[in-house]
Design goal:
694 residues; alpha/beta; Rossmann fold; Beta-Lactamase; Alpha-Beta Plaits; 8-stranded mixed barrel; 5-stranded parallel sheet
Length: 694
Amino acid sequence: MSDTPLRVLLVEDSPLDAELVSIGLADEGFHFTLTRVETEAEYRAQLAGHPDIVLSDWRLPRFSGLAALNILRETGLRLPFVIVSGSIGEEMAVDALHAGADDYVLKDRLARLGAAVRRALADHRQRAERARADAELRLAATVFESIGEGLMVTDPSGTILAVNRAFEEITGYSEAEAIGGNPRMLKSGRHDAAFYRLMWTTINATGRWRGELWNRRKNGGVYPEWLTVNVVKGPDDKVLHYVAVFRDVGDVKQAQAQIDYLAHHDALTGLPNRILLHDRIDQALRRARAEATPVAVLILDLDSFGAVNDALGPALGDEMLWEVGRRIGEQLGSRDSVARLGSDEFAVVLDDPAQVVSVARALQERVAAPVELDERQVVVTGSIGISLFPDDASDAGQLISHAETALRQAKTQGRESIGFFEAGLARAFEERLALESLLRGAAGRGELIVQYQPQISLANGTLIGAEALVRWRHPELGVVPPAVFVPLAEEIGVIGDIGAWVLRAACRQVASWDAAGFHLPHVAVNLSAQQLDRPDLADSVRAVLLDVGLAPERLALELTESVAMRGTVEAAAALSALREIGVGLAMDDFGTGQSWWDQLRRIPLDCVKIDISFVAAIGTDKASEEAIRAMVVFARNLGLQTVAEGVEQQSQAEFLREAGCDVGQGYLFDRPLYPDDLLAAYRHGAVGRGTGKR
């Protein structure tokens, strides 16, 4: 909201009633100044100061609301006018509305005052916008009519249908002589057939041609012209007309474009304005009602943009706003819309708001990316308010208003906040945002820990390695389950950073055990898709190994089947680079996806991990048992080791051993252990005994 107080001119003879009006406005949250007058002279004097709104009693001892309304109209001031009276009748109130009043409020019903004032101010702003747009349209039309460019319109066959006065003046042909003729009558003979073939090929392919052309006047004189030919098509994409404009075609096209632009678009960013936004929302609502789908309206306001604008200056501030509008538009789908509502306020209409939370966060991240202005890196953030159809409102105006209310509520929580109009959704989302905020700094605060689950040889029961498993232990939330924070970390884009932290922590731990005289053959660390997509992955892994002094063969990186089988060039290159370093590569969750022999053999793997779902079904599902046998044979044929996850029963271990599986991992052998616990349990060669209680 603006820091400038609303200037209220109150025509009222009763100080008590004036005080009640002032209290009513204050209760409604208005920031205002109020000036009370009783006489015509006082009223006229205050009107000269151009107040923002007039509130007037209807009957006064020396004045009247009708007189005040007439004087306002006589002065030509277009101010919102609301009657606040205790004596006006319904019929008289209707007459007053017809005479130009915006609304009326009875003094015994002042609870309506706030809504009436807001509506009157909004109507006034819309009228002012329409008036400005109409004036600009009239100006553009006048400019178009007075330009000196020649104009010619033909039908698809080339018959001239219309020309303007400038055409007559330039060519020497009268309107009567030109209509019904063909543009060939203007040919100068300076261009060959190939020139015209290329021109028409371009017109038919692109719908437009622009270039320099020599034509001949009626008197035989040859002259150059800068010509633009445009194709006009109907809804069925068939050609209706060809329009040729010559001489100053750039100015003409600009004037034509201004007709729509001035009325419906923001002059700075070129985005739709509030008027066009209403139309876009109405269109989305019509589709939503027909398809029984929701619609979301998001209002994004830049945090503390005023201070940024003051520091940069108006020119660079405008450049920043233009860039923000461009970024928002790039982030949206083809059926979504973006508009600029005010100086630093943008609106977004989501045709399918199923992912509104993700979209809102993505918009904030896109806006917050640094912008280079005048050789400076400038960052602005944005807060967002969200309203939903049909839950929160049923029309465009209400959706925008409720989204703005949600925005105001969100901004009370600080920068880059997001708020829903509906309280229940807002609470749930606030909880998610809080968890997200805590997760972003978890590693830096030392809240992430790594446990190690032993991997046991099924052939002889010896410890052959351990898998590093990250845990989040928050001082207030306690231990947050991986099933909660890992998907969240993937969604907000920090899983790569967490994975890199775990990799370094696990390598350091193995080196620490070495120093303590305990040799763990290898440690397995999970590799996320975000890490695999990083071009410097292999270099960063090599750097960690060199830093801690760990041999590459003692590190195995595990990636899920879906990540491994993406088949991108970047992923294949990253895996090959890791293999060249000498680290092991394992496929996790094997058997749950769509891995094919031909694809799998192209990936430089060392090991596959049989998914826990197959292991859990041993003894109860013959199909799962056969699948395990097939996977073991499949892996052996490719020279790969097999590891079974989730082994909890002795019967499962025996089946896996008989099937030829190499390694078991699960509570039968041991749960995930803290480093000191693993050292104590295994430094003398002990193995898990199947209790799951170590």
